[in-house]
Write a structure and sequence with these properties.
The chain is 25% helix and 31% strand. With 181 residues, the chain is α/β, with parallel strands linked by helices.
């Protein structure tokens, strides 16, 4: 399956996603709306693309001015395609990849991120793992969770839901980590 990077320095470039049910790439309309709602906040940000699949969200972030992106993907086929996409658009120097589960990354890293994109498989949203991602946000950091339709979403005490939007079968919830001061 072919996907398009929508805007920014890589806008119009084509990347690939695995065919079949291995991943569910975020639709172009939803991805564009998500990035437009973040606006200038993406510029210079250090981002985490959890459940990265093809890497389309992290690549869109880099295209729109993110300083760097860390891509986490457990599925071997999706991980291989993600690596090929990173090389295809020549952003290896701005990319860190991890081939393993999100929970494994959470347990091994001390990194903090300005923005976390969490787009878990719709057939297994893994809310307990998604909640653990909050600890990787910098104070005032933003996490965007993609989840199916009107499905369950976490409410975390250290963050505030600042926005929620639905696009047909996909919904996005935006969380802002409370400032530590």
């Amino acid at each position: 399956m072919r996907l398009r990077i929508i805007a920014g320095k890589l806008g119009g470039r084509t990347i690939f996603a695995p065919d079949g049910a291995t991943t569910h790439p975020m639709g172009e309309r939803v991805r564009n709306a998500m990035f437009n709602s973040i606006g200038e906040e993406i510029k210079g940000a250090v981002v985490l693309d959890a459940f990265a699949g093809s890497g389309s969200i992290g690549l869109e972030a880099i295209s729109r001015g993110a300083e760097s992106a860390t891509f986490l993907e457990k599925d071997p086929l999706a991980g291989r395609i993600m690596e090929e996409n990173i090389d295809e658009v020549s952003v290896r120097s701005q990319s860190i990849t991890f081939h393993g589960g999100v929970r494994a990354w959470i347990n091994r890293t001390n990194e903090k991120y300005d923005i976390i994109f969490a787009d878990p498989p719709y057939n297994h949203v893994q809310l307990s793992t998604v909640v653990k991602l909050f600890k990787l946000l910098k104070p005032n950091g933003l996490m965007v969770l993609s989840y199916p339709g009107r499905g369950e979403r976490p409410t975390e005490l250290e963050s505030v839901v600042v926005d929620s939007r639905s696009y047909g079968t996909a919904s996005l919830a935006y969380y802002r980590k409370k400032d530590a001061s």
